[in-house]
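Review form for a predicted model. The reviewer records the input and the model, then writes brief findings.
Reviewer: anonymous (R2)
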Amino acid sequence: MKAIVATKYGSAEVLQLQEVEKPSPKKDEVLIKVHATIVTAGDSELRRFKMPPLFWLPMRVYFGVRKPRINILGQEFSGEIESVGKEVTGFKTGNPFFGSTQIRFGAYAEYVCLPSKYAITIKPDNMSFEEAATLPTGGLNALHFIRKANVQQGDKLLIVGAAGSIGTLAVQIAKSMGAEVTCIDSTEKLDMLRFIGADHVIDYTEEDFTKSGKKYDVIIDVVGKSPYVRTVKTLRQNGSYILGDPTLRGKVKGLWTSRRSDKKILFELAGYKKEDLVHLKELH
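Model under review:
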């Protein structure tokens, strides 16, 4: 089969189209013929190996010290089942499928094998293969942050860096729950955010949200760009501040704030659960 292979760490030029061995499913795996995949920020960070210092060494050991041991990238996909292992139930050959490859990666190929317990499920009929491939990473993280902050109907929610895959899905999930959503991003992205349901938009190149005097029940910083101290001050009592891309310093500050006040600073990363992907599919 053909696959896009990362021959070493570096810029996009390290990626090469190569002929590689087609995988065969183990007893608990499904073999998927890939129809669509997505280039995510995570793929690019791994290809360049641009990692936060806290994660650099363990990630390098896992993925390969001199060159990538996991050399076919791709974190999310859609396609159809080619075959299933003998212990797999609930899926059969020909099922249209989508999901996340999680830490296996491998979606930049004609075929990928994944354990049936992974966050993978049958694609809904009213979603194209291209649309389905965009959902898992952004959707699962967005759902996790919304749940972690316990967003409720009527809550005032602020999303920093709202125009990415996590932010756009967080907007739509929060609106379906009855929250009032304010989005922060750059000028050219504001119309799109209004289109998908944002109640208010802020152009960060023109306005500092921490100086407006407005208070929020929940703040989700997807990109890690909000000024910590001033952002905490914009939270209401018992409010939650989600650090979606935390640094070690941010974690230490968050633990201190959570201990010393009634405001919760949260930075737990999302798990990739099959039932959560099914829930997202049902929201579509």
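Findings: Residues 2-134 form a domain with the Quinone Oxidoreductase; Chain A, domain 1 fold (CATH 3.90.180.10).
Further findings: The chain has two domains: 2-134, 137-266.
Recommendation: see findings above.
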